[in-house]
Amino acid sequence: MRMLDDKVKDDNNEDIDCLNFNDLSKEHILQCVNIICHLTEEKLKSNNALFEDESQSIFMQVTCIRVPKTPRRFMRILLPYSIISSNDEVALFVGDLQRGRRRDYEPTIEYYENLLRKHGCTKIKSIIPMNQVKTEYDQYELKRKLVGSYDYFLVDGKIAGHLSHLLGKEFYKKRKLPTSIRMLSKDLKHEIEYALRKTVMQIHSYGDTHIVQVGHTFMKKKEILENILATCRYLSKNYPGGWVNIRSIRIKTSISLGLPIYMTLKNKCLVDVPVMQPRRPKAYHNVSGELTTAPGIATVTVTPEGDITVKKIKRRIFLQKKNLQNK
């Protein structure tokens, strides 16, 4: 099943045949979005939902042809329109002004509240200092409660690396890993709005389906359309295996079935299994040198994983080196 009614064009009005998804139909996608919103609204009314006025998240379900061999990682996709609704609550993790577990973190909260007020930032509901995470959210159940208390999380880029291991696996499961921002930016309001336009897709090798949020039911239909197209552009370049490895794309909510907006019957034998290498730091390499306890007799190699290999030098080569040194 392929939709070939209207060719999608990018912002520069250039045909995007080179990205291999010119078979998407804007008209068909809009129809699917309208149907999804209508079905969700009718289902909430029929179930006598307590919170009918709350928005429902709209997801894009991507099914691949070949399951990639890749470590678990997250792709952050920049969208034209933010997926934050008026009812969503956003929390900001910040560093401590004074370090130490016994230090009072109230001055830190007050400082950053004044900073946000100065820049006119009104979307942040709560500020959570690093010390508060260590002292009040050190148990598993408390971390689960923290994840459920807010819809989105931001974090000061200075502490992003230190915070990730403190948050626990619940943030990974709920796809609520904090997005980094620069708190020292001159235009902090724009920095926060830019970060809130990003959505997260978890890439793994446990199955052939990956999910990413592209909007909610309170958004305008054309805004949802633009977010879907922007996500497709990003996936065509960054999805494991590229666009040729995508079997189908569906849009759905958490209480509705998925409606297909793209599907191909391509033979999987024509697609290679994508292999993604884990990201490593620059210093991630083997280190070799002469064994100090047996100089001139053996060399030792240490890998980043901690494996140690000792290799003896051939006696003939050792004697040749020793004779050269005596001369």
What does this structure look like?
With 327 residues, the chain is α/β, with parallel strands linked by helices. Helices cover 31% and strands 23% of the residues. It has 9 helices and 13 strands. α1 packs across α8. The longest helix is centred in the first third of the chain and has 21 residues, at 26-46. The protein is flat, with a radius of gyration of 26 Å. The model is unreliable at 1-19 (pLDDT under 50).
Keywords:
327 residues, alpha/beta, Ribulose 1,5 Bisphosphate Carboxylase/Oxygenase, 4-stranded antiparallel β-sheet, 4-stranded parallel β-sheet, 9 helices, 13 strands, 31% helix, 23% strand, flat, disordered N terminus
The name of the CATH architecture of one domain is: 2-Layer Sandwich
Q: Work out the helicity level.
A: 25-40%
Cα Rg: 26 Å
Element-level helix/strand string: HEEEHEHHEHHEHEEHEEEEEH
Number of strands: 13
Q: In percent terms, what proportion of residues is strand?
A: 15-25%
Query: Based on helices, strands and strand pairing, what is the structural class?
Result: alpha/beta
Output the number of helix runs: 9
Low-confidence spans: pLDDT under 50, at least 5 residues? 1-19
Shape estimate: flat
Describe the main β-sheet briefly: 4 strands, antiparallel
CATH class wording of one domain: Alpha Beta
CATH topology of one domain: Ribulose 1,5 Bisphosphate Carboxylase/Oxygenase
The pLDDT mean sits at 82
